[in-house]
Specification:
The relative contact order is 0.08. The protein folds into three domains: 65 residues, Orthogonal Bundle (Arc Repressor Mutant, subunit A), CATH 1.10.10.10; 83 residues, no CATH class; 77 residues. It has 264 residues and is of the alpha+beta class. It is built from ten helices and twelve strands.
């Protein structure tokens, strides 16, 4: 692994620092640095392998604002994700384990950043950060919170209430049930989230299984009939029963009204 900068590497980073270039595309540095296209490509590849700059995608790179101490640099998750989405003219919101941690639902610090977005799917790594990108329809983006961070950027997170709904909706991806039910109970009890707000977000972003599970939970918590009626009206007729805890055998008391088997 290269740790000592050669003259070409030093010249590129100095030029970028002087011009305040943080995002560079292939082909932009060849002329000012008097390089051929092949030399430029090799130079950028060497810097990526050395961990001094980060490849966002093929032909798109993030550079450090100053020469990195110790010869290593990696962009923040927000800088990397914002750059990728801006390049694709897309929108994103950080969700799942990162949001669980942000709102204090979990104490464990996630090693991977999950993000709903309207452009890309799959896993990728930018610098030192691993991402799981979850492509969704435009209408499934929303109910967000914008958080100012370093570098003059704004991180877009799923809101507190949206994160709770997603813990039920996307339980298989986030491994978030049954603990997600406890999070909802605590948030309702502390009044950080209101039942009316939870119902509204569930109706907008949940599927039929989410509506059933959230409705059954709210009824267990003694929430008013008017709010429960809003969820019931959105349910489609079905004879199929779903488990309260999807990962456990479907055995237990049955709630026919919500179509849920309480297997907890």
């Amino acid at each position: 692994m290269k740790t000592k900068l050669g003259p070409l590497e030093t010249r590129l980073l100095a030029y970028a620092q002087m011009r305040r270039l943080q995002v560079v595309r292939g082909g932009e540095l060849a002329e000012p640095l008097h390089l051929s296209a092949q030399q430029e490509m090799r130079l950028l590849s060497r810097l990526v392998r050395a961990g001094i700059i980060a490849r966002v995608r093929r032909g798109l790179y993030l550079l450090p604002p100053r020469l990195p101490l110790g010869g290593k640099w990696s962009p923040s998750e927000v800088l990397a994700l914002s750059t990728l989405m801006r390049d694709r003219q897309g929108r994103y919101q950080i969700c799942g384990p990162s949001a669980f941690s942000r709102y204090g639902f979990e104490q464990q610090i996630p090693t991977r950043t999950y993000a709903y977005n309207n452009r890309l799917s799959g896993d990728r790594r930018i610098g030192a950060t691993s991402f799981t990108l979850i492509k969704v329809a435009d209408e499934r983006l929303g109910s967000t919170e914008e958080v100012p961070v370093d570098e003059g950027l704004t991180a877009v997170y799923s809101s507190r209430v949206r994160t709770l709904v997603d813990a039920v909706y996307d339980w298989s991806r986030f491994d978030s049930l049954p603990q997600g039910y406890d999070w909802i109970r605590r948030e309702l009890a502390s009044r950080r989230v209101g039942a009316k707000q939870l119902v509204a977000v569930t109706l907008r972003y949940g599927n039929q299984a989410t509506l059933r599970r959230v409705g059954a939970l709210l009824e267990r918590e003694g929430i008013s009939g008017r709010l429960l009626a809003r969820l019931r009206r959105a349910l489609r007729p079905s004879q199929c029963l779903i488990p309260w805890v999807p990962s456990r055998p479907k055995r237990g008391r049955t709630d026919q009204q919500w179509g849920v088997v309480f297997n907890d």
